[in-house]
Amino acid sequence: MVVKASKAEKKIAYDAKLCQLLEEYTQILVAAADNVGSNQLQNIRRGLRGDSVVLMGKNTMMKRTIRMHAEKTGNTAFLNLIPLLQGNVGLIFTKGDLKEVKEEVAKYKVGAPARVGLVAPIDVVVPPGNTGLDPSQTSFFQVLNIPTKINKGTVEIITPVELIRKGDKVGSSEAALLAKLGIRPFSYGLVVQSVYENGSVYSPEVLDLSEDDLVEKFASSVSMVTALALAISYPTLAAAPHMFVNAYKNVVAVALATEYSFPQADKVKEYLADPSKFAVAAAPVAGGGDAPAAAAKEEEKKEEPAEESDEDMGFSLFD
Which stretches does the entry tag as region Disordered (predicted)? Predict the structure, then answer.
């Protein structure tokens, strides 16, 4: 006869398991588990087996264990997990790549029908086309103000209709119609809400950033810092080149307006005194591509022998 463990024994075992996972793993995904069935959760555990562990439990129990473990070890970083334990959530402990684990979890979403009273997670649009329903079912469409017509003995929807909006509760008429049409508009699975990594907490959207995105954001930040530094005349490493260039322009302007000069300004004065030098300097660039071709054509003309005339042949047409 197998003796069942008491509630106290189960709590002790759960506390020990959670503390062991907190010690062993430094990366944790906090995932919402609304409308996730036991079979679906089992498939997720099987898919993550190897370097990840999924742990579910009551929020109060998890919070209590985390607080006690933080006090015992002195690692207060674990306390950052407590505000994340809201609603029906679970913890995914992993040693793998966080982005890959998040993508693996997303694979196990399953379709679900629209049940009465359920809050719609997305907009539900009924597409146009033949429904396969007989004309006696038109009452469902009339109640929901869906334009239809009878085509070959079946009901056909004329235009796409937004049946349910995100955040609205599913009514009995909407649920019945979707069931008749065989539409399962919603899909459910573990949804990663937050990421905990070595004491830091951030949004899962960060995992989707590529190296190009990071470079773009870094360049944008540098531009903002540079603009701010130039506006308040505060020297920074990013703004220094622009400050030097602007200072050089100001000094050159002063030199041109006065008799004062320096080597870097002499060349500017020289070009301004004789603007034709601008054209001379630009000429090789403008004509550089045609000059070799022209020279080659000239050389070909020199090498071509002159055509022989009739007189060189020693007779004429009238001889």
Answer: 286-319
Residue with tokens 């196990």: 108
Give the C-alpha separation, 216 to 220, whole Å: 6
- pTM of the entire predicted model: 0.59
First and final CA of the chain: distance in angstroms?
Answer: 139
DSSP 251: H
The answer to whether 199 and 74 are in contact (CB under 8 A) is no
CA atoms of 144 and 155, how far apart (whole Å): 14
Q: What is the pLDDT of residue 94?
A: 92
Cα distance between residue 170 and residue 167, in whole Å: 9
Which domains, and CATH codes, for the chain?
A: 13-109+189-206 (3.30.70.1730), 112-186 (3.90.105.20), 212-282 (no CATH)
pLDDT tens for residues 60-77?
Answer: 999 999 999 999 988 899
For residue 201, the model assigns a pLDDT of 92
How far is Cα 118 from Cα 237, in angstroms, rounded to an integer? 56
Instruction: Identify whether the C-beta of residue 59 lies closer than 8 Å to the C-beta of residue 32.
Output: no
Ramachandran area for residue 57 (φ above 0: left; ψ -120 to 50: alpha; else beta): left
Q: What are phi and psi of 124, to 5 degrees?
A: -115, 120
Angle at the Cα of 153 from the Cα atoms of 142 and 132, rounded to 5 degrees:
70
